[in-house]
Amino acid sequence: MDFFNSASGRNITFVRPAYFIISGFIGIPNMKYYYVFLFFLYVISVLGNTAVMALICLDHNLQTPKYVAVFNLAFVDLLGSSALVPKVIDIFLFNHYNISYNDCLTFLFFCYTCLSMQSLNLVALSYDRLVAIIYPLHYQVKVTHKFMFSLIASFWIIGIISTLAAVGLLTRLSFCKSSVVINSYFCDHGQIYRLACNDYTPNDIIGEVLPILILYLPPIIIVCSYICIGKALAKVATVQERVKALKTCTAHLSLVAIYFIPIMTTFVMGAGIDPNARIINLSLTSVIPPMLNPIIYVLQTHEIKVSMKRILKFRRQSKILVK
Which residue in 68, 163, 292, 306 could disulfide with 112, CB within 3.0 to 4.6 Å? Predict the structure, then answer.
């Protein structure tokens, strides 16, 4: 237990700073335009994800197991954007660089939990596509509302517990410097624990485990699912049937590419990328996918297109009746 709690059984007082200083964008020229751009992306994200959730709630035809996962993705995108963007704008645009210790850990918790859920939600959608294409006749038996709710709930538990473990281990650290500067655009876990002056080995371990669990394992599972889909489609007789089946996967594949490719590229390049470029790239990968996800689903999903046309037609008819 001493490995995870250096104060276990000892009379040790942890030294915690009154506040952290977030310095990620400080010194980069013309950043005010970037903050306006972030706010513009945030507004689109809020409107788009709210519209998708409203559409799923209003149209009974969309209340299927697949759209349980789509609704959850829209909710997580909305929550993650709302947790990150307004706070980033407040910190850097209005020069509120100091953030209290407790607020910083809370900020970290919401950002990492939403990041985890965005990744795990794509796994849930890949399972839906796998069963729909390989076992079409058994789809309604294998993918039920109960199963999808259970799967999403288990992902929430994994995301929350893993993030709570990371945050909990941060509370056992002492910070000897009076001013603790975090060179990131938010309260980054790796940036925080490396500033500690006592042993942070457990934090280092969970800092290695979390990216594997959240960033590397999900795309491996998704790739394996599409390999199985590819093998199944290779046995289909006609090219038209293969294309038709693949069209049902285009929205999901687009989401996977938009989410994983930029962030994994940044992590793989590591120290080889300029710190400022790394910070801007990571901030964009946190904001652009939640903004694009609803747009992709509206443009590439037949059911949502039909639902939107149905609701708009109903509204027009209602206005005519009122007149």
Answer: 163
Evaluate whether 163 touches 3 at the Cβ level (below 8 Å): no
| Residue 181 φ/ψ, nearest 5 degrees | -100, 125
- pLDDT tens for each residue of 265-320: 887 776 667 778 888 888 888 899 999 998 887 777 878 888 888 877 766 766 66
Residue 28 near residue 35 (C-beta atoms within 8 A): no
Q: Look at residue 163 and give its three-state secondary structure.
A: helix
125, 157, 118: which is closest to 143 by C-alpha? Answer: 125
Is the CB of residue 268 less than 8 Å from the CB of residue 27? no
Q: Are 105 and 170 in contact (CB under 8 A)?
A: yes
**Lowest pLDDT segment from 4-18, 20-34, 223-237, 282-296:** 4-18
Please provide the distance, in angstroms rounded to a whole number, between the alpha carbons at the two ends of the chain.
73
Cβ 187 vs Cβ 20: under 8 Å: yes
Determine the 3-state secondary structure of 19 from DSSP. Answer: strand
CB neighbour burial string for 283-317, b if at least 16 within 10 angstroms, e if fewer: bbbbbbbbbbbbebbbebbebbeebeeeeeeeeee
Reported pTM: 0.89
Asked if 166 and 210 count as a contact pair (C-beta separation under 8 A), the reply is: yes
